[in-house]
Amino acid sequence: MNIGELIEQGKYEDALKELKGEDEDTKLLRGFLLYRLGKYDDAIKEVSNVDRLESYYIKFECYKGLGKKEDAIKSLEEGINKYSLSHVLYYILAQYYFEEGDLDKALDYIDKSLSILPISYDYKFLKAKILFSKEDYENALVYLNDVISMNPKNIEARIMKAMCYYNVGLKMDALSEINKALDLEKNNVTLHFLKGKIYFETGFYKLALAEFKIALRLSPSADMYYHVALSYYMLGLHRDANMFIDKAISLEEKGRYYALKARVMKELGDLAKAKELASKAINLDSETKKELEDLL
């Protein structure tokens, strides 16, 4: 079995034993295998004298694995100083800062990557994610459109695009994008939930209920039970609403759950219970007080 086959099968220790020589290619491969084995210090030592772009990446990953974030960043910055047109190193730094939540630095580095290689699918997608996280939805849409045109089956990009439309108030555009995504992945809970929210907010409560029930079936949670209950309530089906809000409360106690339960009990004719629940809702979440004034 050759080295390539050993690596492909994840047999890194065996592959290391087969590696002979001290040329740069061999050192880089040894360093990479040591990194994959979690032997970070050994990997750093192996590639420390190799002045190749790949060595800076290996050192970056190893320092990250050791929890030495400053050394990890320094390694990439050294690589960038040596290889100023290396869009890959800029991209890796952008990805790192994005994961760390430093969106401004992430945006700065991904812009540098794109200035060198503006047609990159991965770079455009990362920029879209960064802009989305910065709540710059309109500019995120520009990059998401490019990403989707390059890969129409990218579900994550389509979900983000739908959420961008939703967040800028273009709910029908969001709905159209959701339907396209559901053609590719019909059991995506995020898509069904967002579709339900759009239907609910536009007054189509029966359609909202259907979508929330699909989402509930796919991923049962207190919040899903709550949205099903809320849809039943808006349809005037108070006993059904009561059953589902009880399930939500049994899983998690939130002020808005008790607020809905209070409303349901009022509609079912138990005003004393409704007032008791309203008081509990406000104790859990003072924001519910405004909507429960008539029950205080």
From TrEMBL:
- Keyword Phosphoprotein part of the UniProt annotation: no
Q: Which GO terms describe its biological process?
A: negative regulation of DNA-templated transcription
Q: Which InterPro entries match?
A: SRFR1-like, TPR-like_helical_dom_sf, TPR_rpt
Pfam families per record: ANAPC3 (PF12895), TPR_16 (PF13432), TPR_8 (PF13181)
Keywords tagged on the record? TPR repeat
Pinpoint the residue ranges of every TPR repeat in the record. Answer: 87-120, 189-222
Name assigned to this protein: Tetratricopeptide repeat protein
Which species does this protein come from? Sulfurisphaera tokodaii (strain DSM 16993 / JCM 10545 / NBRC 100140 / 7)
Task: Give the taxonomic lineage as stored in the record.
Answer: Archaea, Thermoproteota, Thermoprotei, Sulfolobales, Sulfolobaceae
Give the gene symbol. Answer: ST1841
